[in-house]
Amino acid sequence: MGQKSLIYAFVSRGTVVLAEYTEFSGNFNTIAFQCLQKLPSSNNKFTYNCDSHTFNFLVDNGFSRFLSFSL
Which domain of life is it from (predicted)? Predict the structure, then answer.
């Protein structure tokens, strides 16, 4: 299995993004924010695959962490 590259990451409280990071141009923040709106508030992990990207969410005590990796 090849190495995956981090494309985009953010931390949010509820639906408010507190910090984000990317070295690439693209609509990552738009996709991430749309997914964030649909996440349940319960503590859990979620993974979505779309357009050769893996989107990982971790929800914990009202905070969400989001990481996007290329495949």
Answer: Eukaryota
